[in-house]
Amino acid sequence: MANPSPRANEVEGTSPRRFTHVRLLSDNATAWNAKRHLIANARHTLDLSYFILEVDGTTSRLLLDLIEAAARGVQVRLLVDYFTTFQQAAALRALGSTPHLQVRRFGLPTPTWLAALNAAGIDARAFVTGLMTASGPMLAASLKGNTIFDASVSHDLHSLPSTPGKGGIGFPIQVLGALQPEPHGAPPAAFELAAHRDAALKKVALLIQILRGLKQFLHRNHHKLLLADGQWFVMGGRNLSDAYHCGDSSRGHVFQDTDLLAHDGCSGGSPHARSFDALWNSVPSADITIPEPLDANPPATTGTFHQLASALLATPPGADFHGGTLLPDMDGELVDNLPSDKGDPAITKVYIAQIERLRADGRPASVDIVSAYFFPADEANTSETLLALRNTLLLAVAAGLTVNIYTNSVASTDLKPVNRAAYPKLVPLIEGGVNVFELADGQGSLHTKAAAIGDACLVVGSYNMDPRSELYDTNNLIVLQDPTGAATSAFRRTCIDALAWKQLTGDAARQLASESRTPPSAGITESLL
């Protein structure tokens, strides 16, 4: 999976761009209205890229807005991730049949991988569906009669904890750990019993194909972007779902998140447009209207959107939008992680550079990082840049800077295995002087991925500070420079101070680490997370 094109920031070089009409969107309903505003006022093009799209009330209203935009001649392109929208295929196909509206999915299982599964006697449909639905029993059943894996593998798969929905995004990593032979262990029984050397080699080759295909399937489109007419955009952490656009917990789970609305009027076109084109035209992307054998959903119509949206008391968006917190016009840059077999460290390097720049300044300052899923590296073989980022945080503290990390607790997170596995990594940071705060109970889940680095630098995007964001996910980030300090002050006030936090001590982190159960596949799980 080679990089489809140079990153947007590399195309632009180092010259900063000027962003105007910037608004910080810390409220869920306000962020939803901002998206509706851009869709309603688009004249020529709308490009959207999202990790999760749930066909619920708020998203159905947005999809109807897109249909209305297409009806007035706006060219609409919607790119979603295959893994997290597998269950929405029928509705997306109905949406993609609308004139002037195209829908693509990123990261479909490759024909080569499916053929390898079938050649090994594995039910490919059941295996991939089991991955999508985080069903260990379905995966185990798919291996019945296979020629590669023995009964112990089926047992391990059957025993994997089920975490459907978004919480299941880490499930394929656990599956890969169960299928992966031990580095220095004995070969699978099927290889030992092979009557002929050639047959054994074929089985080895088939196993390699299956594992490589599964590892490639871990790559996901994690961009969150709505780009109107190539200049106006909303980006940040929010997906398309009630959980990100509603503040009422009675309607389900609620995420505390952060988006940014801005205008990029610089000449030469927006880097957002080039990055979107790179993802749209990449090999892992496929048109939703092309029949996909694994899509078993019954046909759907856009009438489903009307039914779900009818319960919302939504007024048509006007020509002006005044929601959120208005920030100063600022210089900045846009940075992307794009598909690559070995990951893309561009965003990690941006964080390192901005923190080191602040440390070099030599004056007292604060680094406040809000990361929903914070999983620091502690071994160079995970990622040299992620290890460098961890060390940069410790060096900043040693230089007299205050470093605060705000993240989820086990109680608040929707990805509990990540939190539990992260606690041992947090102990050295806390002992090194980094302050770690967890979201207090009763406020939903944290989903923000943003930072205030000193008083002059505000960073907002889709990038979680964990290995999978660099190694497997595509992401986008905006880095804004504001000498007045107004932008970082607004962020700290609305996205940090407005919430309640509980500081995590070293003793508490060690206790939580000791209570975490380590699965047999912990090594590969951590290296792939």
TrEMBL record:
<feature type="domain" description="PLD phosphodiesterase">
    <location>
        <begin position="217"/>
        <end position="244"/>
    </location>
</feature>
<dbReference type="Pfam" id="PF13091">
    <property type="entry name" value="PLDc_2"/>
</dbReference>
<dbReference type="InterPro" id="IPR001736">
    <property type="entry name" value="PLipase_D/transphosphatidylase"/>
</dbReference>
<protein>
    <submittedName>
        <fullName>Phosphatidylserine/phosphatidylglycerophosphate/ cardiolipin synthase family protein</fullName>
    </submittedName>
</protein>
<feature type="region of interest" description="Disordered">
    <location>
        <begin position="510"/>
        <end position="529"/>
    </location>
</feature>
<dbReference type="InterPro" id="IPR025202">
    <property type="entry name" value="PLD-like_dom"/>
</dbReference>
